[in-house]
Amino acid sequence: MEARLRRARDEVVAAETIASDLEDEQKQADRDVEQVRERRARDQELLDSGTIGDPKQLQSIQAELENLARRQNDLEDVELEIMERVEGARAAVAQLTAQRDELAAQQQALAATVAEKLAEIDAERAGVEAERRETAGGVPADLLALYDKIRGEHGGVGAAPLHRGACQGCRLSLPPTELEELRAAAADEVVRCEECRRILVRTPESGL
Questions:
Q1: What whole-number distance in Å separates Cα of residue 104 and Cα of residue 111?
Q2: Closest CA to 98 of 21, 7, 17, 8
Q3: Quick check: helix, strand or coil at residue 192?
Q4: Which segments of 43-194 are extended strands (E)?
Q5: What is the DSSP secondary structure assignment for residue 195, as one 8-state letter?
Q6: Where in the chain is the domain with CATH 1.10.287?
Q7: Which long-range contacts (CB under 8 A, 24 or more apart) does 51-55 make?
Q8: Degrees, nearest 5: CA angle 181-182-187
Q9: Beta bridge partner(s), residue 200
Q10: In the chain, which ranges are E strands?
């Protein structure tokens, strides 16, 4: 979600840049049209004033007015095209901004959920650690040291129950001779799986 939000923000910035550039083009087009209009107005005013008696000069002014009219039409077409592109760019900015805001709201909701779950995990972990400390207090130091050593070597699992003749650590069934040895072992004797070397916890479901 954070990656999608970053992309959405980048898209909004890119769209805003395009819209801004087009707005600058529109302003320039507006200025170009206005300059031609002002020039046509001045020439028309001069032509209508009656102060020019030279036929060649009058003909030149009329030709200039025709050229300016064509130029104005061309510039107004360009101006209209840019205006349409500006409207499209603004619409894109609005759409992308709405998508970005929606993703931001979703991201905030997910962040709140993650924070809540992390708080639950921290509370659960604190409870488990307290229970472990209490349990470890009644375990002989040498056995606890062996358990921690095995746990470090086997992904955090140092002991596994023996269930129906199989070690639940490596999920392998013990051979009959080994099961016989376990049956003969004292209840408080520390026994280990020959395959994974984890401490075996004998329970009524062990199958012994």
A1: 10
A2: 8
A3: strand
A4: 159-163, 166-167
A5: T
A6: 2-133
A7: none
A8: 130
A9: 160
A10: 159-163, 166-167, 199-202
CATH topology of domain 2-133: Helix Hairpins (1.10.287)
Q: Which two tokens stand for residue 128?
A: 């488990």
Block means of pLDDT (10 residues each) for the chain, 208 residues, are: 95 97 96 95 88 86 94 96 96 97 96 96 96 88 92 92 91 90 88 92 76
* Amino acid, single-letter form, for residue 122: D
Are 193 and 160 a contacting pair, CB within 8 Å?
yes
| C-beta contacts of 69-74 below 8 A and 24+ residues apart | 69/40, 71/36, 72/33, 72/36, 72/37, 72/40
The residue to which tokens 């209009």 are assigned: 37
The tokens describing 78, both together, are: 């360009």
Check: CB of residue 207 under 8 Å from CB of residue 165.
yes
Using N-to-C axis directions, what is the helix angle for 2-49 and 55-136, rounded to 10°?
170
Structure tokens at 173: 């069934």
For tokens 């993703």, what's the residue?
Answer: 103
pTM of the prediction?
0.56
- Specify burial of residue 179 (Cβ count, 10 A radius: 0-12, 13-18, 19+): middle
Q: Report which residue type is found at 57.
A: Q
